[in-house]
C-alpha cells in the first residue's frame, strides 16, 4: 500500500466526462505538480488545468476533488479527476501520472481492497460493492444495498457475540464445578440450539446471484388456440409472435420482455398442450412447454372462455389449480355475460379488445414486484459466505454430539473457536491473501 494507484473509474469509450481515481500518498504530489494546487480544500470540486509533470504540456482542463486521509473511500489521501470523456485524454493523464515515482495503475478491485484493509468496510460489504455495480435487476440492486449497508454484517456480529457470551458462561460453569464433578450441561444444549437456528436461518437466505439477477419469468400455457400468443402480442403492443386460428401455431417456446413500471418481466409463450399429441413434433413441443412451466416464477393457464365446459378445459383447470397457476379466461369479447364468481386468481380478458389487460398488468406488477414494507430481509449471494456459514453450522453440530456423548469443556471450547473463526472469516476479521486475491480480482479496474 506504499504505492499510489491510479485508474479510470468509467468505461473506456467516448463520453461527456470520464472519472479517474487516484489513491495514496502521491495524490498531493499530483495535485502540486500536475494541477498546480498547493493547499487543496478537501471534498470540494474545483476547476484546474492539468499538465504533464515534466513537459508541462496541457493534458486537459478538468474538475477535481481531493479527499484527505482518513476521510476517503479508501481511507488514504485520494483524488478524483473529471476530464472530458475522450479515451485519448484519459490514457494520456494516466500515463503522465505514472511517470511520477511510486505511482502505478491499480489492479482490479484495489480501491475497495484498500478500503477493506483500512477498516472502511468489512468483507461482506466489500463483496457487495461488486454486486451493486453488476446487478441486472432492481431487486438485485436493492439487495446489494442492504448488504452494503451492513445488515448481514451486523447479524454476523450478533451471532459472534452470542457465541462469546456462551463461551464465557461455560467457562464460568466449568471453573465453578472444578474437579468435583462434571459440569451441568443441560442448559447449554438449548443455547447452542438457538445459535444453530439462527445460522440455519441465514443459510436459508442464500440465493445465487444468478436467480436474484434475472427478470421474473412468467409462462403462458393452455390448450392449442386458447389465445396465448395473441395475449403476448397484446401485452407487448406488437406482433411479436405468429397468431392463427389453426391449433398448434406456436411450436417452440418464445421469450419476450415486458416492461412494467417497477421492472422487466420475461414472458414465455408456449406451444398449446393437447390431451393427446397428434405426432412426434407435437409431443416434443408439449414436453418443452411442460419444462418451461416448471422453470417459471409464475405460470398462467389460459382457457378459451367459449370452451370452459369441455372436458379438456376442465382437466386443464384442475391441473392449473393443483399447480397454483393463475387462470385467465381469454376471448372475453366472445362471451360478455360469463359469471365472474371464481377465485381471486382468475382473470377475464380479451386480447382482441384489450379489456382486462391493464388490470392484469397491475396484478402482475403487484405480485412480482411487491412494494411497501421495504423489509429488513436480504439474500446472501456469495458462495464464500454461504460456505463459511455451513462450516459454522457443522461446528455446532459437533458440539451437540459432544454434549450428548462427552461434554469435556476443552473439546467444546475447541469446536467453539472453529465456529467463531468461520463467522469471523465471513466479515474478514480473519482472511488470507489468497481469499482476498480471489475476491478482488473479480472486480472492475477502478473499483
Ligand atoms: N465521486 C464519487 N462518487 C461515488 C463514489 C466515489 O468514490 N466517488 N462511491 C464509491 O464507491 C460511491 C459512494 N460511496 C462512497 C463511500 C465513501 C466515501 C468517503 O469519502 N468516505 C469517507 C468520508 C465519509 C463522510 O464524510 O461522510 C469516510 O468513510 O471516511 C465516498 C463515497 C458512489 N459514488
Ligand atoms: N375474439 C377473440 N379472438 C381471439 C382472442 N385472442 C385470440 N383470438 C383468436 O384465437 C385464435 C388462436 O389464437 P392464438 O393466439 O394463436 O392461440 P394460441 O393459444 O397461441 O394457440 P397455439 O399457438 O396453437 O397453442 C386466433 O384466431 C386469434 O385471432 C380474443 O381475445 N378475442
Ligand atoms: Mg400460439
UniProtKB/TrEMBL annotation:
SUPFAM superfamilies: P-loop containing nucleoside triphosphate hydrolases. It comes from the Bacteria. Homodimer. Heterotetramer of two MnmE and two MnmG subunits. Gene3D superfamilies: P-loop containing nucleotide triphosphate hydrolases (3.40.50.300), Probable tRNA modification gtpase trme, domain 1 (3.30.1360.120), tRNA modification GTPase MnmE domain 2 (1.20.120.430). K(+) binds at residues 225, 244, 246, 249. Residues 217-330 form the G domain. Mg(2+) binds at residues 229, 250. Exhibits a very high intrinsic GTPase hydrolysis rate. Involved in the addition of a carboxymethylaminomethyl (cmnm) group at the wobble position (U34) of certain tRNAs, forming tRNA-cmnm(5)s(2)U34. It comes from Hallerella porci. (6S)-5-formyl-5,6,7,8-tetrahydrofolate binds at residues 21, 80, 120, 447. Its EC number is 3.6.-.-. Transmembrane segments: none annotated. It holds the Pfam family MnmE_helical. This is tRNA modification GTPase MnmE. GTP binds at residues 225-230, 244-250, 269-272. Belongs to the TRAFAC class TrmE-Era-EngA-EngB-Septin-like GTPase superfamily. TrmE GTPase family. InterPro entries: G_TrmE (IPR031168), GTP-bd (IPR006073), GTP-bd_TrmE_N (IPR018948), GTPase_MnmE (IPR004520), MnmE_dom2 (IPR027368), MnmE_helical (IPR025867), P-loop_NTPase (IPR027417), Small_GTP-bd (IPR005225).
Amino acid at each position: 500500500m506504499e504505492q499510489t494507484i491510479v485508474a479510470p473509474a468509467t468505461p473506456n469509450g467516448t463520453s461527456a466526462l470520464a472519472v479517474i481515481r487516484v489513491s495514496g500518498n502521491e495524490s498531493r504530489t499530483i495535485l502540486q505538480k500536475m494541477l498546480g494546487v498547493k493547499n487543496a480544500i478537501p471534498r470540494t470540486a474545483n476547476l484546474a488545468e492539468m499538465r504533464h509533470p515534466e513537459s508541462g504540456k496541457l493534458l486537459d482542463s478538468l474538475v477535481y476533488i481531493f479527499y484527505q486521509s482518513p476521510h476517503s473511500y479508501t481511507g488514504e489521501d485520494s483524488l478524483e479527476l473529471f476530464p472530458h470523456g475522450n479515451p485519448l485524454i484519459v490514457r494520456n493523464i494516466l500515463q503522465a501520472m505514472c511517470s511520477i515515482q511510486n505511482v502505478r495503475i491499480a489492479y482490479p478491485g484495489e480501491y475497495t481492497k484498500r478500503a477493506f484493509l483500512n477498516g472502511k468496510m468489512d468483507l461482506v460489504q466489500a463483496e457487495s460493492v461488486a454486486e451493486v455495480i453488476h446487478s441486472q435487476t432492481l431487486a438485485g440492486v436493492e439487495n446489494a444495498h442492504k448488504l452494503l449497508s451492513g445488515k448481514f454484517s451486523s447479524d454476523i456480529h450478533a451471532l459472534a457475540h452470542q457465541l462469546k457470551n456462551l463461551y464465557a458462561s461455560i467457562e464460568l460453569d466449568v471453573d465453578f464445578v472444578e474437579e468435583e464433578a462434571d459440569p451441568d450441561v443441560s442448559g447449554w444444549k438449548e443455547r447452542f440450539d438457538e445459535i444453530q437456528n439462527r445460522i440455519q436461518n441465514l443459510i436459508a437466505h442464500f440465493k445465487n446471484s444468478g436467480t436474484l439477477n434475472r427478470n421474473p419469468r412468467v409462462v403462458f400455457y393452455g390448450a392449442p388456440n386458447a389465445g396465448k400468443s395473441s395475449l403476448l402480442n397484446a401485452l407487448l403492443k406488437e406482433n411479436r409472435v405468429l397468431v392463427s386460428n389453426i391449433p398448434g401455431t406456436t411450436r417452440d417456446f418464445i421469450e419476450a420482455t415486458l416492461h412494467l413500471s417497477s421492472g422487466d418481466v420475461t414472458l414465455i409463450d408456449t406451444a398449446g398442450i393437447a390431451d393427446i399429441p397428434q405426432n412426434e413434433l407435437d409431443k416434443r413441443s408439449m414436453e418443452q412447454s411442460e419444462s418451461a412451466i416448471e422453470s417459471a416464477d409464475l405460470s398462467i393457464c389460459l382457457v378459451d372462455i367459449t370452451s370452459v365446459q369441455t372436458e379438456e378445459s376442465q382437466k386443464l383447470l384442475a391441473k392449473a389449480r393443483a399447480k397454483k397457476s393463475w387462470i385467465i379466461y381469454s376471448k372475453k369479447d366472445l362471451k360478455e355475460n360469463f359469471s365472474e364468481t371464481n377465485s381471486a386468481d382468475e382473470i377475464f380478458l380479451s386480447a382482441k379488445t384489450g379489456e382486462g389487460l391493464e388490470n392484469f398488468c397491475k396484478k402482475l406488477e403487484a405480485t412480482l414486484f411487491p412494494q411497501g414494507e421495504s423489509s429488513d430481509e436480504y439474500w446472501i449471494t456469495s458462495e464464500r459466505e454461504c460456505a463459511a456459514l455451513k462450516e459454522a453450522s457443522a461446528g455446532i453440530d459437533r458440539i451437540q454430539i459432544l454434549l450428548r456423548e462427552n461434554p469435556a469443556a476443552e473439546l467444546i471450547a475447541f469446536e467453539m473457536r472453529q465456529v467463531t473463526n468461520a463467522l469471523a472469516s465471513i466479515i474478514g476479521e480473519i482472511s488470507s491473501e489468497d481469499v482476498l486475491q480471489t475476491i478482488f480480482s473479480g472486480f472492475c479496474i477502478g473499483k
